[in-house]
Every structure is written in structure tokens, then in C-alpha cells.
Amino acid sequence: MTAPALPRLYPARMRPRDVLRVGGVGLRTRPVRAFLSALGIAIGIAAMIAVVGISSSSRAELDRTLAALGTNLLTVTPGRTMFGGDAQLPVESVDMIARIAPVEQVSAIGKVDGAKVYRSDRIPAAQTNGLAVYAARLDLPATVGAKLRAGTWLNAATERYPAVVIGADTATRLGIGAVGPDTQIMVGGRRFTVVGVLEPVPLAPELDAAVLVGWPAAADRLAFDGHPTTVYTRSVESAVTAVQGVLAATANPAAPNEVDVSRPSDALQAKQAANQAFTGLLLGLGAVALLVGGVGVANTMVISVLERRAEIGLRRSLGATRGQIRVQFLAESLLLSALGGAGGVLLGIAVTSAYAAYQGWPTVVPAWAMLGGLACTLAIGGLAGLYPAIRASRLSPTEALATP
């Protein structure tokens, strides 16, 4: 009589919930070590998220600034003569540029040579603060997008009298906060009343360290010769390139090669491009920090395997397969990295938000940066835990239980 066949036993399957529970055992039993390892991952991810977020917020602020100020501003300035000397724009250049059909607005400033600026007549002659004096037309603020911080702009009456509007840097250097009838400065040896202070002008930064006098007053009181040194034009957006091509010949038909034409918004965008190169460097540093965090996770997992040999042997003797042991330690490594990654994403968002709020920028954190950061942590966690998991699964029950 043959003995009945014994039923074949199969190892119990681990459900996802069991994998998470078993993988979390090592984290709960060694919380300080787990926290420090997760912190290394978090710092790397936070650095990468913050760099991307701050860069994106800066670009959003630039886009908002250009949208408010417009990208259709072109400037015309005198260049160099064929003999290397300083060229000069004709007195009629502003009126000639205004005749270009797509040009909607045109204004100008003219530098007043030899006029020094002082807070009072008691200031030593050498302390000029590096300020420039310009004759300005009444439509200048509307053309360049300038706004007043205090006081008023020149009008048809004050442009003929000793009244000035000063730039933001000028106000700081001269120590002028408020304006009024008693707020006076010395310009070219004469007293002028400060009637207004400008906010910084992003598309015309030369106005920030300037003292602006009415065109007629500059001619009558400061010996201004009437030649503009910078002409600002606003054109129909679709025709900016075409206008840019004819401005030099229109401003100075006799010598168009002595005229420089530029687009101020291009300078801001070039500055942003330079900032992006610096952003790439910071991202590289963040990647190094992330790699260091991954090494920390690997170190933690290797030590965990060495310290838990008895546990591994007991589980193997109770029927756990090598695959289940691998899954346990791999899950522990992935959980550790996921915790660090989630913490790093939150920390990076917080840093970006705080810095953007301090600068007055909109807060922008791209979704791809957050998802990519989490994906990187899981990939690093998987690689860091792979070797310890394989090593743990190769321990035989007798070898593991025999280890003191």
C-alpha cells in the first residue's frame, strides 16, 4: 500500500500592504539613523527644487515685467564717427523719427555737459556723486514706462523754470526722501527745486542716476545745445523689427553708420540667459548633494543587514524565501528614500516661496521638478538598497542564526 502523497507547500505571498509593513520595521526600530539618512536625500532634493523654483520664479517676474513695460521700446543713441570720435544726433532727429508710420510714441533726453550736481552749495566740489544731468521732454515717462515715487512730473509750466525730477539712485545718493518747495539741489551752479522722484526704470536704467531738467530750462539756464543723446520710440509690436531697420537712416540721414539702435528688453533677456548658466551650476551641486544622500542610504542599509542577521535567519527558517527577504530590504530602502524625497520637495517649495515673497516675485515651482525629484529619490533608493537586499537574501538560515 503506497503512502498518500504529501501536499506541496508554497510560500505565502506578500501583499503590498505586507511589504510596506515589513519594510517599515527597520525604520521604526532605528528612527534616528533613518532620519539622518533621509535628511541627506532631502537636502539634495530641496537644493534642486529650490534652484529650479527660484530660477522659474525669476523668469516669471521677467515675463511679467516685460508684459507690463512692453518689448516694443527701441532706443537711438549716437555712435562713433569714422575717425573714432563721438558722433552727434541732429537736433531734428526726434521730429524725423516721429514721422515713421508704425512709431506710436517718441521722446528723448539730451545730456547737459559740464553741469555738476550737489545737495547744497556747501558740498565740496569733488563730491559730485557721479550724477548726470539731462534735458528731458514732457512725454518721457509715458514712452519709457517710468513711474513716480513721489511728487509730480514736469509740465508745460515747470519745464521752463528751475525744476527737476530725479531718478531713484539720485534720490538715494543725495539723501532726498520727500519733495516740496523747500527741497532744492544745486545743478550747474544754480538752485533747482526737486518736484518729483522716479521709481527705478528697468528699460531705461540711465535715468536712475540722472537729474532731469525741462528741455527749455536746460537750454536757457544750463547752456544745453539741443542735441538729443538718447531717443526712445514705441512702435506697433508687429513692426518693431522693420522700424529698427530704418531708425538709423531716419535719425541721421547724412551718416546712418554713426547711429546705434538697440532694444532694451533684449538686454534683460540676455541677463536672464546668463542667470540660467549659473542655475545649471547650482543644479550640479544639488545633484552632488543628492548622490551623497544616496550613499548615506546605502550605508544605512548595509549596516542594517549586518545588525539584523538573526532576524533574517529566523524569517528564513520560518519559510521566508530569498525573494521575500530581497523585497523586504528593498522596500525599506525605497521607503527611506521616499520619505527623504517628500521632505526635500516640501523644503524646496518652502525655500522658493520664502525667497520669491522676499523679492516680490510670483512663486513658480514646475511640476516636472517635483515629480522628477521624487523619481530621482526612488531611483537612488532602489540602487542604494539593491546590493544590501541581495546580500541579505543570500544568507542561509543556519549561518544567520549562528552569528552572535
Automatic annotation (TrEMBL):
Belongs to the ABC-4 integral membrane protein family. It comes from the Bacteria. This is ABC transporter permease. Residues 35-236 form the MacB-like periplasmic core domain. InterPro entries: ABC3_permease_C (IPR003838), MacB_PCD (IPR025857), Macrolide_Exporter_MacB (IPR050250). The chain crosses the membrane at residues 34-54, 281-306, 334-358, 364-387. Keywords: Cell membrane, Membrane, Transmembrane, Transmembrane helix. It is a multi-pass membrane protein.
